[in-house]
Amino acid sequence: MAEFIVCFGSDDEKKENKRKKGTHHTYNQFEKRKKNKNTPKENIKNNKNTEDEKQNENNLLLLKGTKIYSEDFKQPNITNIENSPKIFEEELDFGNTEYKLKLCGINNQKLEKRITQMKFRLREGNGECHYYIGVEDNGNPLGISENEMKISINTIEKMVSEIENAKITKIDYLKGQKGLISEITIIKINNNLINEKISNLNNNQNYEELKIGLIGEEFSGKSTLVGCLISDKKDNGNGLTRTNVFKHRHEINCGKTSSFTHQIMGFDKNGKKTNINNFGSLNSWSVIVNNSEKIINFIDMGGSEKSLKNSIKTLSNNYLDYIVLCISVDKGITKNTVLFLEMIFKLNIPVIVVFTKIDLINENDRGNVLYIFGKVLKKFKCGKNPLVVKNKDDIVMFSSNMNEGIIPIFLLSNKTGEGLDYLNNFFSILPNKEEDKINYNKNNDDINNILNMRFDFLKIHKDEEGKNENKFIVEGIVTQGKILSNEIYNLGPFDIKNNNSFIKVKVLSIHCKKMTVQYSIKGQFCSLEISLLKELNLYEKIRSGMVLIGNKVPQISCKRFQIELWSMKTNEKDIIIKKSYQPLIHLEHISQVCKFITENNEIIIPCDKSIIVDVEFIYYPEYVRKNSYLLILDSYLKLYGTVREVYT
Fold first, then answer.
1. Residue 374 parent element (H or E)
2. pTM of the model
3. Are 219 and 368 found together in one domain?
4. Are residues 458 and 424 in the same domain?
């Protein structure tokens, strides 16, 4: 217990009391040193070693009695501390090594996050991980006190006790710059590795998943709406909630989305959101996924003229289940709004219309806005019925009839919260648009799903320094079947003459929703670490737009194909295209420049009829499917169409 001195009287008396207290403390230390001086150094050392050995024996007996230590656990020896290296390598986001300066004052919420992190490190190391306590994230071996080390190891013990079949096998102590460093080895015993992986991952991935894109004119409230939905909070009127969505600082400053963003919202079996914890803060993606029966993926796209091309590409290549078209009532229905609406209809994606900033107008103006939207909709002759959601009964009826020609309309305000509850409830019961959805957890379907797997590349990351040209990371979406880690698949197509256009590669690991998983199923976004099995000097030719397919999927390498083209309603006159014109075509996950193959010098596309024409990719062959939808949009052309024939 700390000792306090209370001094009364003059300053001289205070100084005298402090002097006496200091002298008394110094005298005790002097007597202790004097006593030790009369004792041989060898006896002092032997007594100290004996006490440490007894303490270590007691600790070992205590540790051996717990279930978190393995039978071959090595006794920690604090008396023989080795010098640590000058500095460790910097901690990596992946791998089975974790640095922690200390684990003191950990509450239950933080403990759950640390347990999830330990599970990730165990998966990365195939059942083994190493924790370094007293080391900073940059690898600096700072060290901590002995008391802080005991508390930190106690926290590690709690974490290990919450993981099934996890054991501590070894603890070593090192000498840091200002204290102790410990290296703790943890393993997870797997009696049957394959069965355990399947059971664990079924728990993590046994949920329904929807991909919903948000599109609309700039400043129509798309990002603010996503921010309100995932945080379950109202906006302050100045775009506070959209800061949860923006990626870049310049987006926060100007309020415009310059690149598409991906956010998730989860619902449990009772329809309750899993995004928010008991303290009112946002949960991590791993917590949301593990506690959810349904996951909504929001793809927020920019609405400005500069980001229009990226929005069109995102709309085409993400295989969206639904589209939310945001219309701001203060701006009304603009030219771009009509263009977005027509693209959605041509790609045959069910649409949900949301009128935002509804608090700015009165009831009469709301009726006028809906009337104008109905007139615009009639011009497309799409056979869709726009219906306003007014109560909970409408939510149930409209959600179950989305694929039967109903366009639900929501009137909401991100500032006042009007209509947000209706939209939340609507998303919680909204079904997947695919009627033939397969339950991929059935073992009977696993073989066919794996052999018929197809994964489309959307983005690729290579080692810029060129240290490892055998491995690379890709982002994409599983468009059919089921992809497994540590399996061999076919990658292509490559532009290889007199050779097969697909090569064998191995999937080393899979990350989905910021978690390491062993498999991913149809419709899920994920990233893969892939390794080339043979050095064929093809590393530089790996690009976005390629596919990864199973052994039963046909290996299509197409550079020329036939399409049927229509002119959009925004083109009021016939379009004349010269033979030399080379537009950018958006075909599912593919975006590449193409040229028209014709004997004439010009191609005429009527405003009310379709034409059939052959096109050819300029640079390299692609994986093209018959009956796929395509878009051609630039400042001059606004066309849509389908693939009629594929020439391989």
1. helix 363-380
2. 0.65
3. yes
4. no
Beta strands 584-587; 590-597: pairing state:
antiparallel
398 and 542 belong to one structural domain: no
Q: Say if 57 falls within a structural domain.
A: no
Axis-axis angle for helices 335-346, 308-317 (nearest 10): 20
pLDDT of residue 576: 87
Q: Tell me the helices (H) and strands (E) count for the chain, helix number first.
A: 14, 30
At 317 the pLDDT is 81
* Residue 424 falls inside a structural domain: yes
Give the domain-ending residue among 492, 527, 549.
549
Domain count of the chain? 4
What is the rounded CA–CA span in Å between residue 303 and residue 309? 10
How far CA 30 is from CA of 34, 37, 618, in Å, comes to 6, 10, 89
CA distance 407 to 330: 22
The residue segments making up the domain with residue 80 are 68-188
Task: Tokens 């073989």: give the residue.
Answer: 447
C-alpha dihedral, 513 to 519 to 523 to 526, nearest 10°: 40
Query: How much is the pLDDT for 77?
Result: 54
In the predicted structure, residue 221 carries a pLDDT above the cut 70: yes
Helix (H, G, I), strand (E, B) or coil at 124: helix
Q: Confirm if 306 and 325 have CB atoms less than 8 A apart.
A: no
Model confidence at 23: pLDDT above 60: no
Measured CA to CA, the distance from residue 550 to residue 639 in angstroms comes to: 33
Domain of 282, CATH number, reads: 3.40.50.300
Q: What is the CATH number of the domain that holds 448?
A: 2.40.30.10
3-state SS, residue 378: helix
Q: Look at residue 63 and tell me if it is in a domain.
A: no
Who contacts 333 (Cβ-Cβ below 8 Å, separation ≥6)? 327, 372, 373, 376
User: Domain check: are 570 and 541 in the same one?
Assistant: no
pLDDT tens digits, 147-161:
999 999 999 999 998
| End position of a domain, from candidates 188, 217, 241 | 188
Supply the pLDDT for residue 88.
80
Q: Give the Cα separation of 595 and 586 in Å (integer).
A: 13
Whether 10 is in a domain gets the answer no
Same domain, 487 and 387: no
Q: Which residues are registered as beta bridge partners of 212?
A: 298, 322
CB 185 within 8 A of CB 122: no
Cβ neighbors of 87 (< 8 A, separation 6 or more) are 139, 140, 141
Which value, to the nearest 10 degrees, does the dihedral of the CA atoms of residues 228, 410, 347, 544 take?
Answer: 0
DSSP alpha helix (H) spans, 318-362: 335-346
Residues 327, 354, single domain; the answer is: yes
303 lies in the same domain as 382: yes
Half-sphere exposure of 333 (CA within 13 A, CB side): 19
Is the domain of 417 the same as that of 298?
yes
In sequence order, what are the residues at sequence separation of 6 or more whose Cβ sits closer than 8 angstroms to the Cβ of residue 12? none
